[in-house]
User: Fold these one by one.
Assistant:
Number 1:
Amino acid sequence: MMVIRNGVEVDRLVATIGAVRSDPRLGEFTFRASSTWEHGGRSRGEIGVFDHAGSPTTDRPQPFRLIGDEPPVLLGANQGPNAVELVLQALAFCYSVGYVYNAAARGIEIDELRYEVEGDLDLRRFLGLDGPRAGFGAIRAKAWVRSPNATAQQLEELCQYVQDTSPVLDILTNEVPVTTDLEVLP
């Protein structure tokens, strides 16, 4: 009998963990995103094919399409979130999936889960002026959770575990080598 908890097929989750434990290469992914500038602060983004264990996936028949823009105070047309807002949203998404999947694996049912994430940014460096670093100076996340079968202590321990294992939090808090190549078009 298939066990589904929090919308997660628990047997598949456990099987995935076992498969990666047996063959660590199955845990390797290369994700991709592309962006094409349209006008002003607006760009169109696409997220589609990714590699799993060295091979391209065919799981997505169509790429996800996103619009990025800036609010009017930053000279944009407000047609989508800006890049730093998407970073905050990525952290909230990562925390959510980590919490729900790990709760499911631990037998914890979740009735409600919500994250709010905010970050403080000073644009002076971005604008070419003297000032603090260009990125967030601080990020704060707050979560609300309701469970019919877990204690507050279990939910708090799970929250810490999710922080300890979050790929997005790891990306934000540890140095990641980034290379950028430019091809000048004719």
Number 2:
Amino acid sequence: MPRTFPSIEQVSQLPRLLQTVIPPEYEDLNGHMNIQHYMGLYDKASYPFVALLGLDETYFTQQRKGIFDLEHHLHYLAEVHIGDTVSIYGRLLARSAKRMHGMWFMVNDTRQQLANTFEFVSTHADLEARRTAPFTDALAARLDAMLTEHVTLDWDAPVCGVMGA
């Protein structure tokens, strides 16, 4: 069954993690933003996302806990050009004791188009042992609060169907 993608209005119900203007150095020989910069922008959006969960530099450096990405799925829907303003919005879809499943949406604000989706599975990690570890109670509670908020949305995330927490 084909996926149905949300409207710009639906995506804008989510927390905006990042907004930026695409610089000239992001252009490739096809005249649009090069593939490597999508991942770079999603990486930049990860810091505001974890901040929404209460994770800051102290969590990573002093508590020695972190988040590792395990899987990604990118879906390109419309070109992004140099000078376009884009925003990235985040939605949490599910979690287990150690993992979270989410989707981020890149909106081309200049052209009013959904340009790209980024689906991911990430795991909580003990940075000393360099292994996956259960979410702390506090982090699990914040994830659950975000999930409660996101499951009330009246639209389904266009997941690829092969990923999960």
